[in-house]
Amino acid sequence: MKHRICLLLALAASLFIDQVQAQKASWIWYPGDFDIYMSNVMQNRRTERGSFFPVFWKMDSHYVLVDFHKEFNLAQPEEVKLYVEGTYNVKIDGQAMTGFPKTIQIPAGKHKLSLKVYNQAHVPAIFVQGKTVVSDETWLSTFEDKEWIDASGKTSDKSGTTFVSAGSWHFTDPLIAPSAFKLPVTPHTAVKTEKTNKGTLLDFGKETFGFIKVHGLRGKGKMSIYYGESREEALSTEKCETLDYLDLDLSGKKDSVMPLSKAFRYVNAQFEGSAAADSISMLYEYAPVTEKGSFKSSDEELNKIYDVAKYTFHLNTREFFIDGIKRDRWVWSGDAYQSYLMNYYSFFDAETVKRTLWAQRGKDPVTAHINTIMDYSFYWFLGIYDYYKFTGDQKFVQDIYPRMQSLMTYIDGRKNKDGLLEWMPGDWIFIDWADKLSKEGEVSFEQLLYARSLETMSLCAKLANDADGAAKYDQQAKALKKKLFDLYWDASKQALVHSRIEGKPTDNVTRYANMFGIFFDYFTADQKQGVKKNVLLNNTVAKITTPYMRFYELEALCAMGEQSYVLKEMKSYWGGMLKLGATSFWEEYNPDKKGTEHLAMYGRPFGKSLCHAWGASPIYLLGRYYLGVQPAQPGYETYTIEPNLGGLAWMEGKVPTQNGDIEVYCSKKEIKVKSAVGTGILKFKSKSKPNVPGAEITETAKGVYEIKIQKGKEYRIRYTL
User: Fold this and answer.
1) Which residues contact 681 (CB under 8 A, 6 or more apart)?
2) What is the DSSP annotation of 561-611?
3) Average confidence score pLDDT of the chain
4) In this structure, are residues 555 and 580 in contact, taking their beta carbons and an 8 Å threshold?
5) How far is CA 716 from each of CA 664, 665, 672, rounded to the nearest angstrom?
6) Is 3 a residue whose pLDDT tops 70?
7) What pLDDT, in 10s, does the model give residues 52-69?
8) Which of 67, 77, 232, 274 sits in a 20 to 30 Å window from 217, CA-based?
9) Confidence class of residue 301 from pLDDT cuts 50, 70 and 90?
10) Cα–Cα distance between 675 and 679 in angstroms, integer?
11) Nearest CA among 48, 37, 671, 650 for reference residue 359
12) Taking the CB of residue 391, how many other CB atoms lie within 10 A of it?
């Protein structure tokens, strides 16, 4: 009996070891294809008062025929299971197998496993699971598997085919194909219900997103559902932005869920004929991201601003980072760029960043700017290098670099005779929603973004081992940057002027190029002070009313050490929305507007989005410029912490990274730091030299100190302001 028990234990241990050693497989596809496919699905859900409202730029599709392969060297024969989305064939060492096998046997030794998959409707994808033979991003893929025949009539190995690493996204269940992906939902009920003329008005308490569910629907007639981010919108049956209609002829009761998710706080359900329902609830739809970052301070209003910003951002984090949940629900590049930065200080969800960048770019050939907007093409480039800076993921840069090259080639081909960019047919120069903002001529803001994008190209070329490209883009960037200051810098105004028209600079000074020039570090120290005084703190220069550009204006001021001023501005601007009852932050806020004027935009009484991703920028500002945490080397291998209270009595928070959190507490007397990653440098000012046991303190200037922060160690610094 004892021998039998030992044998069973040994067998169980062996099975456990086999399971542990079996590598984890995931669904794979041609890189970028699932992202493009899903963005097409999501962006074409938009409706306007029940009508289909598609995007107005070119939409690409996935490749319909893809070849996947990988070579394996097996110590012993292996049984491998195959799951495929599409019609497929299987080859081992170039020899095709009969039919559509679900399980194959691969002999010991070195072998090449290949699958070629066709799927017009969905993305060609495979899931391969053996003990060591598994599908993952180490597989190679191509959409052009050329099989050339040489002069002797034999198949040539030198086909000229380009193979790239496969794409994936944590789809590890072989029974759930990528095309079946949906965001999760959870039931919610209204916090208040009141009767209206022929129905019910429901208040869900705050801005939300999901599917309306009608319980006990019955009768013959019509049910109309009017959605509103505000009470006024839901009650305006003629002007609300979104709605649903149901024609009913039911003999008994049934529950019904609306087919498309919507944004709303209020829902106005109206009935005609004998149509009726027992009750109405919702299925809240959300992205299953983890809220890793945090911020709390001595200022309760600021804490509320942070919490509402975080909720706003989560609502707009879906399959991709989108602009707003009510109206567009599109992947706009300018909106997404800000979302990336907010993400690094909240969820640190790298996968959504990558999906969004792939989806925005689409396929070659390039025929227009991203979203047709010149500045949005440039934000796309900037987003890629920022992604590398925060994650250290060089592979992604290498994978997407060819599409960076082709987009930049398109842009370079649209320069005028002076080597500058200006409007051409098919372009939209956006910059910002602002009255009387000129887009005529060669706008300095576009040239500045162009220069920064060329710098980004040079950096990414190095990561992609393209030395010639790195040198070329660097030379272009330096030449354009020099031209920017030669043509646009006005010494008397101490600012970059807004534009050149017919070869002559205008007198107009706007905030856009000037504030970007500060945090791009394009100005000298004296120029920065001049811009701060003559532009950023100058009330005669046209003010910014959108959170979109307010984000960059406040970042520039923070970069100049104006955290106390920015704190007041955040409390006035975002706090102003809260005082008007906002439960999420808006697309635009002008404190001079009154009442329902705040709901209007684009000539429509309820056209404004009351939950817009770019309204959530305090997340980034508080993490980057108050807690003061940022990577110095990619992936937080090294980083800096420069806390700035900006008038707060105390603050504390966490900044997430790929491999753990950086925790910071700061009051007027004490700083506490703990980090799970890399090596950091804490920088702070103190009237007297602090004493920190176990830490080396360096005075870099009078009253300015640095402490080296080691992973896993807690630091407590007593200092004097």
Assistant:
1) 632, 638, 639, 640, 641, 706, 707, 708, 709
2) T-HHHHHHHHHHHHHHHHHTT-SS--S---TT--GGGGG-BTTBTT-S-SS
3) 94
4) no
5) 10, 9, 5
6) no
7) 999 999 999 999 999 999
8) 232
9) very high
10) 9
11) 37
12) 21
Residues sharing a CB contact under 8 Å with residue 685, sequence separation 6 or more, in sequence order: 703, 704, 705, 719, 721
Sheet with 629-631, side-by-side order of all strands: 629-631, 638-641, 679-685, 704-710, 697-701
The pLDDT of 119-148, averaged and rounded, is 93
Residue 421: what pLDDT?
98
* Paired sense of beta strands 679-685 and 638-641, if any: parallel
The one-letter code for the residue type at 581 is G
What number is the average pLDDT over the span 569-593?
97
Q: Please give the pLDDT value at position 158.
A: 52
State which H helix or E strand residue 128 sits in. Answer: strand 125-129
What is residue 22's predicted lDDT score, i.e. its pLDDT? 59
Q: Over 70: is that where the pLDDT of 5 sits? A: no
Alpha-carbon 339 to chain mean position: 5
Contact present, 37 and 362 (Cβ < 8 Å)? no
Query: Taking a C-beta distance cutoff of 8 angstroms, is the pair 513, 531 a contact?
Result: no
Contacts of residue 695, defined as CB under 8 A and 6 or more positions apart, other chains included, come to 707, 708, 715, 717
Lowest-confidence pick of 83-87, 197-201, 270-274, 675-679:
197-201
Helices (H) and strands (E) in the chain, counts: 15, 34
Contact (CB, 8 A) for 697 and 655: no
Alpha helices in 489-539 (DSSP H): 512-519, 525-531
Q: Which two tokens stand for residue 37?
A: 């496919």
Beta partners for 188?
282
- Whole-angstrom Cα distance, residue 537 to residue 295? 27
The per-residue pLDDT for range 359-415, each reduced to its tens digit, is: 999 999 999 999 999 999 999 999 999 999 999 999 999 999 999 999 999 999 999
- 110 burial type by CB count under 10 A (0-12 exposed, 13-18 middle, 19+ buried): exposed
Please check whether residue 224 is in contact with residue 269, taking contact to mean a CB–CB distance below 8 angstroms. yes
Return d(Cα 396, Cα 388) in angstroms, integer: 8
Residue 363, Cβ density class (10 Å: 0-12 exposed, 13-18 middle, ≥19 buried): middle
Q: What is the DSSP letter of 424?
A: -
| Spatial separation of the C-alpha atoms in residues 128 and 40, rounded to whole Å | 27
Say if strands 103-106 and 78-85 run parallel, antiparallel, or are unpaired. antiparallel
Q: Which residues pair with 680 in a beta bridge?
A: 639, 709
Say what percent of the chain tops pLDDT 90.
92
Task: Specify whether the CB–CB gap between 371 and 361 falls below 8 A.
Answer: no
Which DSSP category does 276 fall into? B
Strands (E), 150-307: 164-165, 167-168, 185-188, 192-195, 199-228, 242-257, 262-273, 279-285, 294-297
| Average pLDDT, integer, range 259-272 | 97
- Contact of 415 with 423, CB cutoff 8 Å: no
Q: What is the 3-state secondary structure (H, E, C) of 655-707?
A: EEECCEEEEEEEECCEEEEEECCCEEEEEEECCCCCCCCCCCEEEEECCEEEE
Q: In angstroms, rounded to a whole number, what is the distance separating the alpha carbons of residues 348 and 345?
A: 6
Question: Which is nearest to 410 in space by CA: 432, 380, 390, 437?
Answer: 380
In this predicted model, what pLDDT tens digit does every residue of 598-650 receive, in sequence order? Answer: 999 999 999 999 999 999 999 999 999 999 999 999 999 999 999 999 999 99
Q: How many CA atoms lie within 13 A of 610 on its CB side?
A: 30
For the chain, what percent of residues have pLDDT higher than 70? Answer: 95
Q: Which among 600, 656, 607, 588 is positioned nearest to 627, based on CA atoms? A: 656
Question: Residues 177, 124: contact at Cβ < 8 Å?
Answer: no
Question: pTM for this structure?
Answer: 0.94
For 639, phi and psi rounded to 5 degrees?
-155, 165
